[in-house]
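Hi there,

I know you've been waiting on this one. I reran it after we fixed the sequence typo, so this is the corrected version. Both the input and the resulting structure follow.
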Amino acid sequence: MLNIIWIVLLCVGILVAAFTGNIGVVTESALKAGELGVKTGIQLMGVIALWMGLMRLAQKSGIVSAIAKVFGPLLAPLFPDLKRESEAWGAIVMNLCANILGLGNAATPFGLKAMQELQKENPHPDQASRSMITFLALNTSCITLVPATIIGIRIAAGSANPTEIIGTTIFATCCAMTCAIVADWLFRRRNPV
C-alpha cells in the first residue's frame, strides 16, 4: 500500500511540475537526490564497516559470550521460556548491543540469527513463540545510546552539531522500549500459555 502512495505522490508531483512549466526543477532535484544518496551511502559504509568489524571481533574473541552471561540475568525475566544454554542468547545480546549503538544495519544479521535459533526451540513452528514476540518487540524498540548511523548521516549532510540528537534519542528510545516491555508483559498476562 505504501508503494502505491509513493507512486501516486511522485506522479502527481511530476504532472504538476509539467503543467506549471517547472519540469526542469524535477529533473534537477532528482539528479541532486541521486547524487546525495550515493555520497551518503558511501560515507555510511565506512561507519557501518567499522562497527560491524568491532562486533565481529567481539564475537570471535568471546566477548559476546561474556556479555551474554552478564546480561543473561537481566534478560532472563523477559524470556522465561528460553533455556539458559540456548544459542539464541548470544545472537539476542549482539542484536541488542548493535541497536544500542544505533547500528540497525549491523543488528539485522544478529536479529535473523536470533530468530532462527528461537524457531529451533519453538514447540509450534507454524506460529511465533512468546520468546520470538518478545525479541521482536525489543529489537524494534531498543534503546539507542549512541545513534551512530544517524550521526553519520548528519555528518554527511554537513550538520554543524551532528551529535546534538543523542539526548533526545536516548529519551525517545527509552520511552519506546519501556512501552514495548510493558505491552509484552500485559499481553503475556492476558494470554498465558
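Quick highlight: The first helix runs from residue 2 to 19.

Best,
R. S.
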